[in-house]
Amino acid sequence: MDYLEQAQQYFANNENAYQILIYCLGAFCVISSIFNWDFVFDGPYNPTKNPIGFWFGRTAFRILFFILGLVLIVLNFRIK
Known about the structure:
This protein is 78% helix and 0% strand. By secondary structure, the protein is mostly helical. It has one domain (18-79). The longest helix has 22 residues, at 58-79.
């Protein structure tokens, strides 16, 4: 059994696994925008891959990423 099958089996057997995954993703978005991690926000800012970073800059991209993280966390609380 490979890792993909193990992950699929874990998510099928654990009803809260998706909520944990969304919490972690939201926390990653919030923490990375607060600490301004380069591996998340540096990169090729071009209109195709990252239009927000290209047109508005890194700060706007960080603010949007922070809002996205908060939305993921808040909506996940509302789903429970």
